[in-house]
Amino acid sequence: MIELAGVRKSFGSGPRGIVLDGLDLVVPRGEFLAVRGESGIGKSTLLNLIAGLDRPDAGRVAVDGIALEGLDDDALTRLRRERIGFVFQAFHVLPYLSVAQNVALPLALLGRRDDAASARVAAMLAAVGLADRAESLPRELSGGEVQRVAIARALVHRPAVVLADEPTGNLDPGSGAQVIAMLREAVKDAGATAVLVTHSATAAAAADRTLVLTGRGFAPA
Prior knowledge:
With 221 residues, the chain is of the alpha/beta class. The chain is 36% helix and 26% strand. The protein contains seven helices and ten strands.
C-alpha cells in the first residue's frame, strides 16, 4: 500500500540540512505500522512525504500503486481527499462547527452531502462512542473525546491510508491508551493501512509492527 525507495529529503543546504537519506519502506495493505524515533529525526517529514505534502529530493514514493512524483498539485490534493485520512496531535477540529459537522468535512470536500453521507457520519460517531455528542461543540468535549472526533473524521470517507502524527501527545496516559485502542479498532474495521508516528512505547505496542527511525534508516524496535 505504501512504498518508499531511496528517498532523500533535506531542508536547507549542507549535510546538516539532510533529514532523510536513502530511506526504504514497504507497508503492506492492511498493516498498522508504528514508527518511533528521537525528536527531529524526520518522523513527521516521513508522513508528509507519504501524503504528498512534501516532495522528496530524490527517490520514489508510491501510495496504493500510484507514484506521487508523477502527480501535479491538483492531483495530489485529490489523492489526499480520496485516499488518505489524517489524525494530528493538535486535533485540528474546527471550533465553530459541531462534532457531526467536523466529521462530515471530508465527505463535503468530496461533494457528498446526501442522506448516505449523513448516515456515514452517524455510523462513525457511534463507532468512536460519540453518538450522543453529535451536536456538541468541540469546547464541550474532553481532549480524549476531541481526538475521537478526529479519528471519526479521518475514517469517515473510507480512506485507503490513515496517517497519525503523535495522536496521544496532548492526552493523559489513560485517555491516550483509549484513543490508540479506538484508532486501531477503527482502522482495522475499515480495512485501512495505517502509519502511526509516536514517542510513546505504549502507543506503538498497539501496532502490528514497530520500526525505529534513525539517521541511518529504519531499525526494528
